[in-house]
Amino acid sequence: MAKKPRFYAVTRGRKLGIFNTWEGGARLSVERYPDAKHESFVTLELAEEWYRQNNPTPGSVHSPVVHFSTQATTEQQIAEPAQATLDDMGVKQYVVYLIIDPVSDEPFYVGQTSNLERRQRQHLGRANHDCKRAAAKIAKILDAGMTPAFKVVETCDSEQASLDAEKKWIEHCTARGITVWNRWKEHRDIRAVHMKSKIEFDRIIGDGPITLGSYHYESRFELKSKLKAFLAKCSAGAIKPRLAIEKLTLIWKITGHAGEVSEFRIVCGASKAKLEAVLVSGDTVDFEYNSAIDRLP
Known about the structure:
Number of helices: 11
Low-confidence stretches: 72-90, 193-206
Order of helices and strands: EEHEHEHHEEHHEHHEEHEHEEEH
Shape: elongated
Largest sheet: 4 strands, mixed
Mean pLDDT: 78
Radius of gyration: 31 Å
Strand order of the largest sheet: 3-1-2-4
Structural class: alpha+beta
Helix content: 25-40%
Distance between the termini: 73 Å
């Protein structure tokens, strides 16, 4: 007669979650662990409910991590094996999941699979400090006596749909400023694009429609041309028109120049006139307005 299955919920131990074996499983997590807390149950549902009631991180909505041994599965009675397999043929489902840091409650990896339990075992089994990716993060979490949470965020009917959804979730995380350590080149490219600063002031970012405060221009070239034409009509000395001062001040501030300006003035040089900014501190700074306009967002 086949041995009845048991499920072991561990809420305080070296690894937290639900195990389907004692020897080589839950026992390794709780034996000789100070104040270990665990219980065994005849069904997975009961084990999950007890885990939720004794959740080591109150307020967390994450499901418990499952640590299922493939060897134990072959030894245990599995309900309706033959018919379930026949019914499920051709109806394979894929899921997109996040691996979440139990301390920060933020995801650090996005994945897709048709067998989440197997992928969980693989991730935990490959924990390794000697790398710079998710495996190192998982190793660090395990060393702290915790276990990363695995959360399903989307279910798909095909592998291609799950791959597309995985890409979408990577983009979603990185757009929020969250670093996810996915290994595929495409995933690294997504991270590089989305994590890049929206405004890079140290280089020209090209031409196109821009907004300067409440003023709109078809291009940076248009703003440069209008400003150049205005300055060409002005005589040397402090700039007086209020509108010109307002726009120059906006360019100054938006492009990250330091110091508060008291006035802008035109200085006639040997070859051409130049624009200076006189600061409240008394310092005078050359204002290269053309390069500043190139850096406007």
